[in-house]
Amino acid sequence: MTVSMRVMSAGDGYKYLLRTVAAGDGKRLLSTPLTRYYTEEGTPPGRWMGGGLRGLGDGLVVEGNVITEAQLQLLIGLGRDPVTGDPLGRAYPVYRTAAAHALDGPRGDGHGPTERAAASAVEQPDEKRRRAVAGYDFTFSIPKSASILWGVGDAATQERIVAAHHTAVAEVLAYMEREVAATRTGTTAQGGAVAQVDVTGLIATAFDHFDSRAGDPHLHTHVVISNKVQTVLDGKWRSLDGRPMHEAVVALSELHESLFADELTRSLGVQWQQRERGRDRHAAWALTDVPDALVAEFSTRSRHIDVETDRLIEEYVASHGRRPTPVTIMKLRAHATLATRPAKQVHSLADLTAAWRERAARVLGHEMSTVAESSPVLLNAEDLPRAAVDALGVSVMTAVSEKRATWRHWNLTAEAARQMMPYRFASASDREAVVGLIVDAAERASLRLTPPELAPSPVEFQRDDGTSVFRPKHSVVFTSTELLDAETRLLERAGLLTAPRVALGTAAFSRLTGGGRLAEDQLAALASVAGSSRVIDVLVGPAGAGKTTAMNALRRSWESVHGAGSVVGLAPSAAAAKVLATDLGIATENLAKWWQTHIDEGSSFQAGQLVIIDEASLAGTMPLDRVTALAASAGAKVLLVGDYAQLQSVDAGGAFSLLVHDRTDAPELTDVHRFVHEWERTASLGLRQGNPNVIDLYAAHDRLRDGSTEAMADAAYGAWRADIRSGKSTVLISDSNEAVAALNVRARSELILEGRVDALHEVALHDGTRAAVGDTVITRRNDRRLYASKSWVRNGDRWAVIGVHRNGSVDVRRLGRRWGSTVLLPASYVAQHIELGYAVTSHRAQGITTDTAHVVVAPSMPRENLYVAMTRGREANTAYVAVDRPDVAHVGPRPGDAADVTARSILCGILQHVGAELSAYETLVAEQDAWGSVAQLAAEYETLAAAAQHDRWAALVRASGLSPSQVSDVVHSDAFGPLTAELRRAEAHFIDVATLLPRVVAARGFEDAQDIAAVLRARVAAVVSHDTGAGRTRRTPRLIAGLIPRALGPMDAPMHQALAERADLIEARASVVLDQALLAGEPWTRALGVAPRGAASAAWHQNGCTVAAYRDRYGIVGAKPLGALPESTAQKLDAARARAAREAAQRLGQDQRVDALSRSRVLAGLTR
C-alpha cells in the first residue's frame, strides 16, 4: 500500500512531525524542488493544504505556505484557529477515568447531578476510555523503485519525481474532499449524530520525509488532516466523520499509486511492470528501468550488518593480530545481525543522496543513468466504450466477491483502481472518471442488501444528488446473487432430513487411548450429530475442547455400521487435512484439490458416507456449497467441525457461522480440556466471547507484559528461547509478517552463535534471509511431487535443514523426527517457497498444540487472532502487548501513541474488534434491522423535529429573560438542539414551555456557565423528570411508542409528513419487536406478566411496546428487560418510562388473574 493512516490524539502528538524538520526553514512553494534542503540537516518544514483553509485566520492561511510549530500546536494540539487562536467549534473532550473521578472531593457549587452532566469531562472506565481525535495522519509513499530512482537519479530526475509525487498527493486530497470528507449532525440515543452532511473542505498540513528507518530512499509525505471541518449548510465547525476516513484507505492507496504512475509517466516517459513479492503479498508495480538488484540493495538491513561485521573484524584483527577464520567471521556476522537495529538519524539530503548513489554504483558497476523515455499511450475517459465499462464492472464485482461475502463502494473502488493500474491516463480527472464509471457498473452488477429509505426526507435533508443525509455516502452494502443463492442452498440442506444416521456404539462409551472417557458434553454432542438425519450438520468446539477426540469416537461408531472407509475427511488447507488424516486415520484431502479431482476424474461421495470437513470456519462459502451439493445427491452426510470464534476464511466466507446461528440446537462442546490450569480454561472462553473481565485473570497469573514493540519482541523471544532450552515444545507467535521475519532472523543468529546452525554454507531465501544446516524452515507451497516418507510436502509444514548443496537445493527432515521423513527440496523450490520457521503468525498457529505459547500482541490484532494465539499452550500462554505503533520509516512515539496506554486497555480494544465477516444472509438481516430500528428512526425524528421548529424555539429563548448576547450564545451553541428536545419533551407532557423557560432562566445565574444552553437543558430536564405527567394531569403524555415526544405546533407540510411517517414506523417497529419476542419466548418478556384478555389486552400490549421500543432504541440484549443502568440523562428519562410501562403491564396481568380468581370462587359458591 502506498497510503496508510493513523488516528492522531489530541495533545502533543503533533511534535513527532517536527522532530526532523531542518532549522532555519524559509518559505517554500509547492513548485520548489527539495534541492533547497540538500545541505541542511533534516527535512523541509510542513506546508498548508486543503480547501478548508479559507475558513481560517481571516483568510491569512494560504495553501503552500509554511506552517509553524505554534500554528500546529493550536490546530492539532488544541483544536483552535492557528492564527487567531479562536476555538473551532467544541473543545476536544477530556474523557476521564472512573479512578480519576473517585479522587475528586465533594463539590460545593450546589449544582445537582443533571447540571453536572453538562460538564466538559466525560467519565469512563479505564478499559473503555476514549481519547479525543485531533486528526488523521495519512502517509503517502511512492513505489519503492520510484524512491530509489529519486534517491540516485540526477537533479532534474529528482525534481520531476518530487513534482509528480506532490501532484498525486494534491489530487488524492481533492478527491477526498469530494468523496470522503463529511461531518455528522443530529442526535442519536447513544450520543452520536445521525445525519451526514457535506463540508467546505479539509484542513491539512504536509511534511515531506526522505528516508526509511534503515536509511534507504523512501520519499513519503505525511498529510495530517485536522479533525475540524466547517459544514456547508451553516458554516459551523464540527468534527470529521471518521468512518469513511477509515473505510476509504485502501481505495485511496490504489488510486494514489495509479495517479502517481500517470503523472511520472507523463513527465519522464517511464514504463511500469508488475513484480512478484512472494507469497501472501500482492504483486508490486515497479519502474522497468530500476533493476531488481538495486531494489534488493535498498530493501534489507544487509548494509548495516555488513558495516557492523567489518567493524567487528577490524577489532578482531587489532586484538589478535590476524584475520579471523571463516567460522569466526560467521559468528561475528551473527553478532552484527543482533546488534544492528537501525536507529533513524537526521542527515542532509546531500549526504543521503551521495551515499545512495555510491551504493547504487557499487551494485550496478556504474552510475545510474537517466531512464529511457518512451511515448506511452495516454487514455481519455471517453476512449472507453460503454460495453467495456460494463464488462470491467462485472470483472471488478467478481474479483471482490471471491474474497468477500459482502462489500461496499470503497471495496469496489479499490479493485477498480487496481484493475486500471496497467493503463496510463491523460489526466487525473480522466482516471477518476473511468474508475467512477466502473464502480457504478460494479454496483449495478451487485445485489443490494441495504434497504432503501423507509420514509422520504424533506428537501432540506437531501444532498444535491437527491440522496438522504440520513444515509452516509457510499454506505450501501452489496453481495452477489451467486453468494446469496449458495448460502440459501446451504441453509436448505442443513434443514433437509434425508442423510444416514447411526446410534452411538460401545466405542463411544469405552475407555479412550491413554485413559479416560468421553465427557458428558462430548457424548451429548456426538449423540446429536450421529442421530440426526440432517444432510449438513455442525459441531462447534472452542480451542482445546476435544474436537479431535470426539470425532474419533464418531468415526468408530459410524464405521461400525457403514464399514471401513465410510468416513472421509476434507479441510480448507493441505496442512489441516494432514492433521485430520493423522488424528482420525482416514483418507483426507483439501477442498480445492478434492474438487479438482472430481472435475478431472469424476470421483464423488457414496451413499452412507460421513464427510467430515474440519476447520470449517476457514472454508469459503462457494466450495462448501459445491461439496455439500455432491454429498446430498449421493446420499452422504456432511459434518462441519470448527469454531466460528476462531480465524475465518480468506475467501468469501461466513457460511459456518451462518449454519450454526441459524439453529437453536447446534451441537457444541462446552468443556475445555487442553489447559493444565483450571483458571485458564475459564479465561480462554472469556477471550472467545470478548469478555474484558478475563484480562484480570491473565494479569493475576503473570501472563501479561507491556512495553514498546521492540521490548515486547525481545521479551517474547527470550522466554521462547528459555523454553526451547528447557526442552519444552513452544511456539512464538506474532500477527505481523514483518515481526515474524525479524524474530526468525534473531533466532537464527543466536543459534549460529551457539553453534547449532552452520552458516558457512547457506542458501538464499525469497525474503532476503538465509538458511543452513540446523535451521528450522517452513514450506509455503504444496508440491505432491516431493515426498517425505509417506507424505508429500505441504504448505505450512515445518522442517529441520540437514543438508545444503552447492546448486541451492537442501535436504530437510520433518521437525520433531529423528530419522526418516526426509526429502530433497530442489533449488527452485528453496528460492521461492521456503521461509525460516521459528516464529509463526496466528493463521499458521491455528490447529497446533504446544506446552507454551509466547504471543507478541499489536493493537491492530482482531479478537479471533488473539484467541487462537493465546490458546496454543497447554501449560502457559503469555501475551507481550506492544503499546506503540511503529512503522518501517520512523522511530519514537507516533501520532496516536498515548502515554497512558496499558496492556489492559490494548487488550480491551482487541476484544471489541471482531474481524469475522458476516455471511451475506446475516448481513441482509442486520441491515434491515439496523435501518428499521427504533434507534435509527427516533434519531431521524428528533433531528427533523429540531429543524422543523428551530425558529419557534429561538423565539422562546429570546423571550426568556436572557440578554441579547446570551440569546446568541444559546441559539448558536451545539447544545441548542438537546435543549429544544427537552422543551419538546416538556410540551408533550402538557407543560407550558412559554412559562417554563423564563422560570428556569430566573432560577439561578449563569456567571460561571461554560455553555448556557447546556445548563438550560439540564434545568429543563430536571423539571420534566421531577414534575410531569401524572403529577400535574391525568392526561396521557403525547409520546411515540411511550418514549419519544411528538413534535407539536406549526411547521410546514413536508416536515409534518416526514415526522408523521417516522412516528408510524416507530410504533410499528416497537409492535413487531414485542410480537417477535413473545413468539420466541425471550426471557425478558416474562417481566411483563401474563397477557390479559379482553379490554385490558390492548393496554398491556401498548405498555409492552414501550419496553420493546426502549430495548430497540438503546440496543439492549439479554434477559434483563431494561438492561444495565443508563448513563445519559436522556436515557434515564426513557428508562423511567419503560420501567413504569413494565410495571403497568404487570399490574394489568395481575388484575386479570385476581378477577379470574374472584369469578371462579363465585361460581364455586353457586354450585355448592
Question: Could you characterize the architecture of this molecule?
Answer:
The protein has 1168 residues and is α/β, with parallel strands linked by helices. It has five domains: 3-93 and 129-287; 386-479; 482-662, P-loop containing nucleotide triphosphate hydrolases (Rossmann fold); 698-912, 3-Layer(aba) Sandwich (Rossmann fold), CATH 3.40.50; 933-1080, no CATH class. 44% of the residues lie in helices and 15% in strands. The chain contains 39 helices and 38 strands. Strands 1-5-9-8-2 form a five-stranded antiparallel sheet. Strands 18-22-21-19-20 form a five-stranded parallel sheet, with helices on both faces. Strand 12 and strand 13 (284-287) form a beta hairpin. The chain is globular. It starts with a strand and ends with a helix.
